[in-house]
Amino acid sequence: MATTVYRGPARRQDPGREGAPLGVVTNTFKVLKMPDVDWYHYDVGERDIVLIVSIISVTHLSLFVAFIKADTGKDASVGRRRGHQLMYNLQLSLPGVFPSQGAYDGKKNIYYTRKVESGEYDAVEDNRGPQRAGGAKLKIKLSLVARFSAQDVMKYALQGKQDIINMLQIVLRQLPNIKFQTPAHLRNYRVFYTDESKAPLGVGLEAWRGLFQSVRPTLTGLSINVDISTGVMYRGGELVTLLMERFGIANVRHLELSKTDPMWVKIRQFLRGVLVTWRPNPERRQAMSIEGIVEQAGLVVFEKKGDSGPEQLNIETYYRQTHNTPLRHPRLIGVKNRKGTIVPIELCLVLPGQLFKGKLPEVGDLSRKLLDFANRKPHHRLNDIKTGISPKTLSYGETNFVRESGMQIDLNPSTVGARRLPAPRIQFHGSEADITAGSWNMARPQRRVYQPEQAPNWVAINFAQEPIFDRLGPQLVQCLQALGVNVNSSPRIQNATGQNAMTTLQSVSQLRPLPSFVLVVLPESAAEIRTLVKQWGDMMYNIPTQCCRVDKCRSANNQYCNNVALKINAKLGGVNSVPIAPVMSEWLRKVPTMIVGADIGHPGPGVNDRPSVAALVGSIDMFASRYTYAARAQQPRLELINELDNMMVEILKDFWNMSPPPTPEKKFYPQRIIFFRDGVSEGEFDKVAQQELEKIRAAFNTLAEQNQEPLAKMRQLPTVTYIVVGKRHHIRFFPRQGDAANTSRSGNCQPGLVVDSEMTSPIYFDYFLQSQAGLQGTSRPSHYTVLHDENRMSSDVLQALSFALCHVYASATSSVSIPAPVYYADKLCAYVAAYHFNPAKLPPPPSGTATTTSDDKKAEINVAQWNAALGRTKLRPRLFFL
């Protein structure tokens, strides 16, 4: 019976048996011997010291570490870089108190294998390093928080207890923490970036390669996950040069900006949070984090204390008189920090190794350069990882921190058992095909799509200012007709410009009958035209639109036109292919079942005046190939789908209305729901699952309590299986050397690889599935965690269903990396955010002088106003968002 009440993670089922067994190499390294010494945990607190100690001392020995201003006795905020240096210096200066270096995270936590004396110690400054502003002297106060026995460490680490895992993480990271003191590492403590492997991207950015490491409890013990990670960095050096490169500025005087200049907001957003130092003596200064920018920085007047009292002078005069550093361009903008310190940009130097967290600029071939750098062939990636744990970097076999703990780590990557699942067959109109290495061919022999649609009249609009349809039109018509789509071979063609875009679209909307679809050719950079086209087609006239960039259309080859044709058929409401597999028959065709994909798309880093968008897609046929949808705006970066209950009601009603059979007396609701949820971190599993399952149950109750005849037929609530699909992890699988049968042409494992034992979680029912072949780089498996299962699905059923659903993505002729409904929900979040809000109903954008909310503060927006501006297209269940 369905209860849809979360009572903790679903019980782990026995491992699956379907598929051919094999062994694969992983990027994990087993902990052969657990720590055999006691650990003493000291807390480095910056606030509420007495309160923290008094709470902890109820159950633990009481001791503690804080940075304190010696002259005032108040807490001092110390950054990670300086914290490491101060603790390192202190321990070296007092060998009698500190017989060995502790494992320190640079902020609040330090761990020793021996007890040290509590008390206050004078901080030892490094005269070669940056000094604290104002020259304030510091004391370091140590206090013991807890003692972990060797037995505690072994017991609780294998149970995934977070404070023990955190301690082991810090122990393993201690030597790299000391060696890799880049800003990128200090802000992302799990990845160690170095400039030994980097590549310029252009526009002031460069790519750096780094090493990720994390302690993972598994069914067979602790393992260390080590992987290669790529970060996009600001190019270090002159700030003026960086800005000129990023924004294509040829003359430095173009940086003499006012707050009303369109470039003002772009530069402010680009620089926010960037660490700079400045001349003179930049190596002696503490880095400053940029909070904003100011006009004519050299002319800003401030009050300076002088021998005869306060005096007024501007910044240009101050640097010339005090530092003998005249400004060449005093009218250039300057940067400021939260305290209001202003520095002219011509004096500023950007520290190297700072992560750029914004959206990559859409200029040139920047994305291609990044992919070329990041994509590493599997054998190259594995070799990089093996090199990474050598004494040169992570040094698992050399570091004193690991040796003193008694811990031993296998320096060879683990080999684990796996299985290769059989691929489904693919059914088309009147034919079937086997899948070869994760893909199938629509052209040899020529296949007709499973359910072709008709397009008796369609329109082509050309914004590209070149006669592109002479080549594109005939080739596209040929591909559509070959796929079985009945399409007019002589469409109406209209040329247009960005200036008359809406006039052209409105003229098309006056045609009778309305066109079946509109094909739009765009210039290489035409975001505004695309937005106009999508809003016109999706929200105003319910006409499917297919946009193509002119640089993709020029060759008009068969492969490109076939891909466009598949998208057009899906947008018209057709079905391109369906997978044939026993699990599809048993679980989708015998019992009415809805497959749901759910995701939340968040605004970009630093953007806090726009909402997050939550999206659901739900299947409405027995092949899980046709989908309806629901979407909502919600508070930025909220991880819970806040209106999931109302969204579920929408897609369940659509299931009733859109599913065959057509007669009301024979209609039905789904009896089972398989809910795939994307974008939930492991630390949020239980919280999100509990609240979202409550909302799903509320949706069922809403429908069951309706008095209308169609809705009253939900007499028995559907049973729900709730699965989180994870993509942002660092587990990778590699074929064993010499295993040609299980190695793809790209050097990856063959698609269908599943791992559900040995390296899976001791807490959750989970499995890894690599469903795609991978064309470039090393394929990433998806991580599935079953949190709730009223349908009592076995491991074999869950894995086979997940794999089959990776073959129903409408615009692909290969299996994709995640189930199609999850992929659709992910795309829909971005699509709705870009095109489905009515600009006339949106709140006014912030002014050019508005400040941006810092990342660590929760922004609040008027969600009701955003949802009032959010439309729902009548094009569903067509896949309009492809």
Automatic annotation (TrEMBL):
PROSITE patterns: PIWI (PS50822). Pfam families: ArgoL1, ArgoN, Piwi. The keyword Lipid biosynthesis does not apply. Residues 517-837 form the Piwi domain. GO terms for molecular function: nucleic acid binding. The chain crosses the membrane at residues 49-68. This is Piwi domain-containing protein. Keywords: Membrane, Transmembrane, Transmembrane helix. It comes from the Eukaryota.
